[in-house]
Amino acid sequence: MSQLSEVAISALLVISGLFGLVGSWGLVRLRDTLQRLHAPTKATTLGVGGALLASMLYFALTHGQVSFHELMISVFLFITAPVSANFIAKTHMLHHVQPEELPPTGRATGWAGYEAAGQGEGSGN
Amino acid sequence: MLRRILPHPLLTLTLAVTWQLLVNTVTVGSVVLGLVLGLIIPVVTAPYWPDRPRLRRPVRIIEYAVVVIWDIIVANVVVAGIILFRRLDRIRTHWIAVPLDITTPEAITVLAGTITMTPGTVSAMLSADGRAILVHCLDTGDPDGVRDQIKARYERRLKEIFE
């Protein structure tokens, strides 16, 4: 393996490690659940992406084989990460955010979670 | 008849290719198994997708993916900067309501996912009639600008792809 590819792979790993660290630090530092939600959904996508890219480069350059597993991992992450973030946001909102704090929908109806919770007594939990 | 065996050719192809990528080597056996999975799964899951999404301009997906991946990289750097250097009481968090022009569930799902993955925004909720989306923005001095950017950058492209 040439010097150059070693440097490239190492750089990618360091970058991904830094972003993973910053994402975790965001979890500690930011003030409320919704702000904290931003740290792991953003800062860590590049963290994971960098590690996967480094892995692909490593296998391509040293073993001469193209690996698609990393691509699949990133595709699955891109599909699942927003879903779990959305679930966390909704759960938090229904327990701690009043509908009055939200901006109006600009439509005849309110926001979906609160409409459903308001119809059946106590069924929102 | 063909429709009954192959209710969703695109899903069949996607599943077969996905299987191939998971196995990571191309052999006759894995190709056959991938095709079998691609044939069986759409038939079994058919009740769950009564209206299949129609892709009007599939080529535009590539353009969309490039835009989104670039925005994700930028978003990572921006959010990292906020986490590391911004004083906590200077972080201007906003709720933003974005009215939607797109109506197909698939397009809205992709938009919501994109919003969550990109610049300091998380999609939180839809309005009960599904025509507006609630976005939580970590830090912005211009909530209307964020709304307009989401509409111009992502929604317009998704409308071209799906509708």
UniProtKB/TrEMBL annotation, chain A:
Pfam families: PhaG_MnhG_YufB (PF03334). The keyword Plastid does not apply. The keyword Protein biosynthesis does not apply. The chain crosses the membrane at residues 6-28, 40-59, 71-89. GO terms for molecular function: sodium:proton antiporter activity. Keywords: Membrane, Transmembrane, Transmembrane helix. NCBIfam families: CPA3_mnhG_phaG, PRK12674.1-5. This is Multicomponent K+:H+ antiporter subunit G. It comes from Meinhardsimonia xiamenensis.
UniProtKB/TrEMBL annotation, chain B:
GO terms for cellular component: plasma membrane. Keywords: Cell membrane, Membrane, Transmembrane, Transmembrane helix. InterPro entries: Cation_antiport_E. The chain crosses the membrane at residues 21-44, 64-85. GO terms for molecular function: monoatomic cation transmembrane transporter activity. The keyword Transmembrane helix applies. It is found in: Cell membrane. Belongs to the CPA3 antiporters (TC 2.A.63) subunit E family. This is Multicomponent K+:H+ antiporter subunit E. It comes from Meinhardsimonia xiamenensis.
